[in-house]
Amino acid sequence: MSDAPVIVARDVTIGWTRESPLVEHATFSIARSEIFTILGGSGSGKSTLLRAMMGLDEPLSGTIEIFGEPLGLLKPAKPRFGVMFQSGALFGSLTVLENVSLPLREWTRLPKTMTDAMALAKLRLVGLEGAAEKLPAELSGGMKKRASIARALALEPALLFLDEPTAGLDPVTSADIDELILTLNHALGLTVVLVTHELESIRKVSTRCLMIDARRHRVVAEGPPDELERSDDPAVAEFFRREARSAA
Questions:
Q1: Can you give the three-state secondary structure of 201-214, one letter per residue?
Q2: Residue 65: closest CA among 76, 56, 73, 57
Q3: pLDDT of 43-90, one tens digit each?
């Protein structure tokens, strides 16, 4: 297996205009099988950076490579990564099984019996086999997150993007989702890139973190979560230890 990074970002600036960027000159790489967490306060640009890595938003400058290829040059073939959006983004008129099998129907020519069987296997993987025929409106918040993760895994990607996977969940359900992320990472060797502000999740699942400061519009720390917790940088200290910054 190649040791080349799964994602490489070089001097990336993101935002809506060059006059008011969210993040400037970000350079980092993400190794295979890492759980890489993007941190930052509200409005810091962490979700926008995630979208840039998915190719949904174009950086104002700089380059992003996935699997050694620039994003703009990725071939229009079967996607090599899966995405779980914060809201889950399940189609309300489709059953859970139909939601999960949708990427298979879109990107393969397999018969319905096979796509259904493959989708059911993904639901079994996330603990939702018994909910296959339910509609999204019949699911709890945690079940919707699991169904969305199952759909992101439908095409068996090597890379998984998760936007706030535990947002809006109670502590017990959040811990269950954390365990699922760790299980998928260990069992499948998935590289996971996620955005979260939940300290317990960060400490539990992260291999490495990237911290963005909204006030300085740049990356201010990168490393394992225990290393960032010892940082003297005021923005990092505020985030991890919830310390108020001095007026200075």
A1: HHHHHCCEEEEEEC
A2: 73
A3: 888 989 999 998 888 899 999 999 988 876 455 566 789 999 877 688
